[in-house]
Amino acid sequence: MERAKEAILREVKKLRRETESDFAGLGLLDPASRRVTWRIVVGSVSSRTPNMTQRPSVGLLGMAIRSGTPVCFDPSRPGAERARTEDPILLAEGLAAAVFLPVRTGSDTAGVLLLGRRLTKDYTDAEIARAVRGTRALGAQEEWWRELSAEAAGWPKR
Question: What is the CATH number that goes with domain 2-144?
């Protein structure tokens, strides 16, 4: 099981580096508990982040899951500060710019990749396109997700 987690971690680190992000996190969607749990984090400044769970129907994370498309946190939009303070990851990590990308395995959403920056520098279309290609490649590795799902079954429910 560690093989799958290590491979996914390697890909998340690669996407963080290629998009010049300060933070990258992979939240896994658990249909049984109806929560997203942040199990893989890179560049975290908060010890709370790996233990956080979120409802997959709320906020920017929920919009990405429901729409199946990337959702950007744009600090210049009206209501942006409220969106930021209502999202525990954006708040805990001090992210000023972020993009939430759904990770699909087949026809199911397995999780969400969050890329973020602590300085206000919006993601370009090219960076988002690169991240989308990366999430598609992650989702295509079905054996990784099977191993990770088996491991997640033993995780505590929150």
Answer: 3.30.450.40
